[in-house]
Amino acid sequence: MAHYDLILRGGLLVDGSGGEPVQGDLAISDGLISAIGVIDGDGEREIDVTGRVITPGFVDIHTHYDGQAMWSERMNPSSAHGVTTVVLGNCGVGFAPCRAADHDLLINVMEGVEDIPGVVMAEGLDWDWESFPQYLDALDRRRRDIDIAAYLPHSPLRVFAMGARGAERASATKDDLALMRTLAREAIEAGALGFATSRTFIHRTASGLQIPSFDASNDELEAIAMGLSDAGGGILQAVLDVPQRSWAEEIGALREVARRSGRPVTFTFAAPNGGPPIWQPVFDMLDDAKARGESLSAQIFPRPIGMIVGLELSTHPFAQCPGFQPIAALPLAEKLAAMRDPVLRARLLSEAPIEGHPLAAMGRAWAWMFPLSDPPNYSPSADDSVAARAARLQVSPEEVVYDLLLEEDGHAMLYVALGNFHDGKLDVVRDMILHPGTILGLGDGGAHYGAICDASYPTFMLAYWTRDRGHDRIPLALAIRMLAHDPARVVGLADRGLLAVGYKADVNVIDLDRLTLCKPMLSYDLPAGGRRLDQRAEGYDLTIVSGEIIAEHGVPTAALPGRLVRGAQSAPSVVGVAA
User: Fold this and answer.
1) Residue pLDDT, tens place only, 463-472
2) pTM of the model
3) Cα torsion for 491, 540, 447, 273, to the nearest 10°?
4) What are the C-alpha distances in Å from 296 to residues 118, 199, 420, 480?
5) How many Å apart are CA 547 and CA 556, to the nearest integer?
């Protein structure tokens, strides 16, 4: 009789293929799935999971754990939501390659783009690397709860190759292009999963400047993509400059780079909250690319692209007002007392904010701003918006939001739906989810510590789209495929994302009936005592990485089986899919 390390008995197997779920057992040995179905053998440990759903571990291909993977063993919030593999280095920002003289420059970039306090990075990073291969080696030396893989980020690459000219966004010379191509090849050969870039105007340094990659030429992107081609692997990830430029212009340029290099491409895609259906031309371009045999995918997010504002967070509607500056750095209790002063209240209500980061300006979108409840409602009614409340009370939106910020002794949070909430509904998001050219991602874990907490999207995907939505729900089997199998395949990780014999034993056991998102909370556990938004969930009975249980009923265990994944991974040769 066969003996296994672990057997999960009697669960509903949702294998990640999109096929119908089946009742059965799953056995694990030596970090791999070793049997599926009705299993006669015994296990070192056996767990009855009757009434639970067994799924592959989820894969988030858009995160920013570049720093957190260095200073922490836990890749949370992601690992608290069933994610067992994350990809970092997105948006073309990161910490390698980097010479010692440029440490502060890259910290400035990350602080501005990803809202990671500079003091956190200064204390948390030991910089025991210079080249990108050395950075991968540094990641490899550390242990963590889940697997990580890394893109080569464009901004550090540009500065490394061009020095100050790269930081100042000068045009790359032929020699610059040749060097970046060589460095890209070396990065892929060392284990980079691909190359990432950003062209969006929103991405600014902490000093307010455009990041080094912002207006890099198509020739530069092509040269780097050819470096991937020289190495025979890697995907290109891009954040495009929409709406400053059109989707047709940006995607057209990206497709041309992909055609010339032969490398697959994935880009960030979101719908606006109002206006014409600009997503349809993107769907058409994805369809055309597929018809032509091009590997082009759009990364989407299954709920509104959201920002959280509050007095303890990175921004709020009065953060840029001149009258707020004298109290901005005060402890919360003192800040709260000052804001209760009628004189300061009157001043702040009458002041216009000074120009700052574009996201700060978006923090005054009254029609798309809502009190964040517990549990959080990510599909709120328009009647609950700050604008609607102000209209009912016949006061200004500033008055309404001022009072809301003071609630809960100043701990109140407000949710701003920046996109993906067209006409106050998620119907367009459903169309995006169901389009064959899209892929789930954009959790952004490890970044935006004081403004965004989107790494919980797998839990929302399951709780809302497969269970709670009143109409047009998405089948559970499809949702699991989109959370596990599909993103893994897009980035070349073919050894995971399926419950099949020989596949990596990254597994979730979920109580779907009890699955609930908790309200985001502040944790002060970053280096230098820095704060970050964190978010838990209820309903994950087990999360397993490489056959080891990393969390039981939401409580982390001592197991740290997570490793650096170097480059694309092949599917196992022995496959038995649950049926």
Assistant:
1) 999 999 999 9
2) 0.96
3) 80
4) 35, 18, 21, 21
5) 15
